[in-house]
Amino acid sequence: MQQRFPEVLVRNDPKQYDELADQWWDPRGHFVSLSWIAKARAELIPAATRPDAILVDVACGGGLLHPHLEGKGYRHVGVDLSEQGPRVAREHGVDFTVRGDINRIPLADGCADVVVAGQCLEHVPDPYAVAAECCRILKPGGTFVLDTIADTRLARLMIITIGESLPLPGMAPKGCHDHKLFVNPDRLALACAAAGVPMKLRGLFPSILDFMLWFPKARRDVRMRPVRSTSVLYQAVGTKQPAPAEAVTA
Fold it and tell me: N or C: where does the chain have the smaller number of CB atoms within 10 Å of the terminal CB?
């Protein structure tokens, strides 16, 4: 499918996800890099430890995580603000979707065995509050996995200045990101820890060789590699700690 851009290019406008909903699963479309990141995200998700375990996919988009959950044993619940994303997600296997604002996730405290927040924190005014919301709906002992973009000049250069300016397959649509919303790794780790989920962070970067082979269609996808630097794209994973004994008995 030939790439196209939404008619109204308002930076970070969520409407563009509805306008480009037909590209969620296009292997050469705007969102294909999100599928590569989703695969790397799934590698941090443990297998379910009980029947009917729930995984909540915050800002699920078109459900790109779903194929990579096969065999892990979760009911996949997606939450997304868009109109079209949840429909596309259900068409591609997501068990249940909720249309809602991730700043106030419309789910109960402690309802999820796993919460994932992939490539969404860099699109909200207060990503640290959204991270705390994700921790709120996570059960004690549950796993929180996220990935996002760092608030650095290098990230702005690579993601916006270069990435959104090249009319090439796989590039994010122009106006997709606002660098002012990029997420500080240290602040994010502190916000999650304050909400009871200490996180381990690592950088993530595409395989350059895979990327060079993907453009001429010599590869079907691009592997994302863990790296030490969190200066562009990074992942984090953590386990929710039990509430302090005094809080439980109070």
Answer: C
List the alpha helices (DSSP H) in the chain.
15-19, 32-42, 84-91, 127-136, 153-156, 185-194, 208-214, 245-249
Average pLDDT over residues 125-134: 98
Q: Please give the DSSP secondary-structure letter assigned to residue 183.
A: B
Give per-residue pLDDT as tens, 203-239.
999 999 999 999 899 999 999 999 999 999 999 999 9
User: Could you tell me which of 55, 64, 104 has the C-alpha nearest to residue 81?
Assistant: 104
Please, are residues 150 and 184 in contact by the beta-carbon 8 Å criterion? yes
What letter represents residue 66's amino acid?
A: H
Query: What number of other Cβ atoms are within 10 A of residue 207's Cβ?
Result: 16
Model pTM greater than 0.85?
Answer: yes
At the fourth CATH level, the homologous superfamily of domain 15-241 is Vaccinia Virus protein VP39 (3.40.50.150)
Residues in a beta bridge with 205: 225
**Placement of tokens 């194929």 in the chain:** 67
Report the alpha-carbon distance of residue 146 to residue 194 in Å, rounded.
16
DSSP-assigned states of every residue in 64-107: TTGGGGTTS-EEEEEEESSSHHHHHHHHTT-SEEEE--GGG-SS
